[in-house]
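## Example pair
The file below holds two records. Each record gives the amino-acid sequence first, followed by its structure token line.
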Amino acid sequence: MMKWSLWQAGILVLSIIAISMSFYSVINTPKLGYVIINEAFDAFDYKKEMEKEYLNIRNTRKRLLDSLQVDISVLSSRIRQGENQKEIVDLLNRKRIELNSKMEQFDEANELLAKDSDKKIIKQLNQYVEEYGKRNGYSILFGNTNGGTIMFGKEAYDCTKEVIQFINLRYAGTK
């Protein structure tokens, strides 16, 4: 049987400790990734649906404003042709006031609708990204917003495409 010297035993113990520490660090290395938020936001099917709804509402409002513009043009034309009846002038003034009022009202409503839609989309997107991270064992998923929070990340950590696929499947209810 081979006798171990103190020196050999020490090297063996240090080797075992080094291997154990390496193994422990590999096992406990957090899984990290990042998502390019603007890409995920733009590719999110829910965002596309909300955008269509917003455009429909905005276009309906625009048609109403266009109709008022036409009424004002017709009344202005009648006045230019010599019909200066008080009723026509009063109607023209009422239409102008109505148009200005509706324009302000619609501008504010469109802005509020856009902000509300964005808020709903971002809330849903964040929930799905969190769910994606948990299901796929991530310790941290960073959001790259092109605002300087992540200046560089290796492409291997970019999980944007996978997240987009996940959120759209999840939104469709198939995952």
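Second record, same layout:
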Amino acid sequence: MLNRYLIKVLSKLKEDTLSLEDLTSNLNLPPERLKEVTKYLESIDSIKIQKDMVKVRKGARVKLAFSLLEQGFALEDVVKELDWEDFEEFSSNLMRKLDFKVRKRFILRKPKREIDLIAEKENYVLAIDCKSWKKAPYLSRFVKAIEDQRERCERLSKEANFKEKRIFPIILSLYEAEVNLVKGVPLVPLYKLRSFLLEFEGYTDKLLSFKS
């Protein structure tokens, strides 16, 4: 029963101060459950309970999301409660846990372009475009995102020094599309990111890449 309220907490908490009264109201939380919920929140770094207030600092929602995963919540259920502000941070943290070296908002110049995430391993680089679409994208929208990311990756291969590593363009979305591979570029729903990364080297021959 408590699990149902904890997943709701993730959608309601913002970087701010919230009264316990408002939290109870927002979650339709029975009074007898309040103590259990606040005890769990106090175990999360960046969330503090002081008197009758919940103080939420930057990064708290992402830390709460990972804590829920460790408690056995389904990844798909957790990521549905994330908003666009959490998207890159959650993805970055997940990749770091899998031993990727991650850089956020990599800037290409003349003309200026930005790659949301660069995730680097020993022998390859993932150039990731994070799309916080509010629903599953239509194919035409996916194709446009692919063309833009292909152009950025081609420039990245020429402007950055990754010591001859292969650079793979990736589109990362909150939602799953009707298709998951177009012109050699995968669209990966966030809830499948971990399994995609763990299995990545098994299907690189099917994916578009650029050599740096």
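Notes on the second record: The mean pLDDT is 85. Strands lie at 17-19, 47-50, 53-56, 101-108, 113-120, 124-131, 166-173, 181-182, 185-189, 210-211.
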